[in-house]
């Protein structure tokens, strides 16, 4: 499966696609995850995963990956179509702050506007993966089971 966008839609009541992420959802604010909602999952969807990644972060990992991972969430049942603000349900992975859970945008001072991609992945099976997987560990396990995906992009510039 290639990582191609599908007909799914992903939205947030907190910001529009391409719009600014409110400070509340950043490291300079309350650092709570934004509400997310999705629709149009492919027939046969049995589970979901959500990722937030900043490709503009000046970080290259030893394995050659780039950017900064802010959130990895998985083991989301196929019946779920939204996540409430600050929710802690389901299973959290490890972000690039070496923490489990959500850590919001907080680009380096003076680094300009960063783009934050919130991804929803539709899976052809339910998952029961252990807590603490990195984004790359999760994608390695999920890739054969991804049947749909889409993204919502928000921006943030440190004040």
What's the SSE blueprint?
Blueprint: E1 9-11, E2 36-39, E3 47-54, E4 68-77, E5 82-83, E6 91-92, E7 114-123, H1 135-142, E8 146-156
Antiparallel strand pairs: 1-2, 2-5, 3-4, 3-7, 4-6, 7-8
Q: What does this entry look like structurally?
A:
This protein is mainly beta. The chain has a single domain, classed as PEBP-like (Phosphatidylethanolamine-binding Protein), CATH 3.90.280.10. Helices cover 5% and strands 31% of the residues. The protein is built from one helix and eight strands. It has one helix at 135-142, and strands spanning 9-11, 36-39, 47-54, 68-77, 82-83, 91-92, 114-123, 146-156. It has a five-stranded antiparallel β-sheet with strand order 6-4-3-7-8, covered by helices on one side. Strands 1-2-5 form a three-stranded antiparallel β-sheet, with no helix packed on it. It is globular and about 45 Å long. The model has no long low-confidence stretch (mean pLDDT 93).
Query: Which residues sit in consecutive blocks of at least 5 with pLDDT less than 50?
Result: none
Q: How many domains, in number, for the residues?
A: 1
CATH superfamily: PEBP-like
Strand order of the largest sheet: 6-4-3-7-8
Using the coordinates above, name the CATH class. Alpha Beta
Brief account:
By secondary structure, the protein is mainly beta. The protein contains 1 helix and 8 strands, in the order E-E-E-E-E-E-E-H-E.
Question: Can you tag this structure with a few keywords?
Answer:
159 residues, mainly beta, Phosphatidylethanolamine-binding Protein, five-stranded antiparallel beta sheet, three-stranded antiparallel beta sheet, 1 helix, 8 strands
